[in-house]
Amino acid sequence: MSGLDKMKARILEEAQSTAQEITDKAKADAEAAVQAARESAEAEAAGILERAKRDAADYADRIDSSMDMQRKQAVLAAKQEVIGDVLETAYNAVMDLDDEKYFEMLEKLLEKHVLSGDGTICFSEKDLERMPAGFEDKIRNVAASKGGSLEISKKPEKMDGGFLLVYGGIEENCTIRAVFDSKREELSDQVNRLLFG
């Protein structure tokens, strides 16, 4: 083999060796890049999965909280309905009292609300018709005990029961419904304690 052939063979051999090194390095770099991309993708996937788990847990907590709130609201609404029914039953029981007890109650209500001065007391048609004998005297005596006088209006008022006190232009609503309405919160609290502890 001549010197030129040897030189060509050596250059060719070096070129093949260099090409092999470049190919091996490119393969190693490519594998490293693929591995890095795989690890990055796995880390990102793990992060996404972790966020999804947290979001799902948060959503479940919000649903539990919402359901608990709805349950409490339903219980409260049911309690309020029961309390309302009890108060309405009590109101009806007062309205259905026999005449003697009913007018005794009205006398006590009058003692509590009568003012000094001259006024008029108004009743419903039903109460005017069933007013017991001597009740007008009781009304006058209660008014006199406070330094005033009351005249019974013969014109019936449209009301459920109880009475209206009128002093000049001032009207005191002492109907049974008005008394119940004014005491509704207090009565509701008492019924709530009795029924639900």
Give structural notes.
The protein is an alpha+beta fold and 197 residues long. The protein has a 4-stranded mixed sheet with strand order 2-1-3-4. The chain is rod-shaped and about 155 Å long. The model has no long low-confidence stretch (mean pLDDT 86). It has helices at residues 3-95, 99-113, 125-130, 135-145, 176-182, 184-196, and strands at 117-122, 148-152, 162-167, 170-175.
Keywords:
197 residues; 4-stranded mixed sheet; 4 strands; alpha+beta; single chain; 74% helix
Shape: rod-shaped
What portion of residues belong to β-strands?
5-15%
Please state the CA-atom Rg, rounded to the nearest Å: 47 Å
Give the tally of β-strands.
4
How are the strands of the biggest sheet laid out side by side? Answer: 2-1-3-4
Quick one: biggest sheet?
4 strands, mixed
In whole angstroms, how far apart are the ends? 115 Å
Compressed to H and E, one letter per element, the order equals HHEHHEEEHH
Q: Summed up, what is this model?
A:
74% of the residues lie in helices and 12% in strands.
Task: Furnish the topology, listing elements before pairings.
Elements: H1 3-95, H2 99-113, E1 117-122, H3 125-130, H4 135-145, E2 148-152, E3 162-167, E4 170-175, H5 176-182, H6 184-196
Helix pairs in contact: 1-6, 2-4
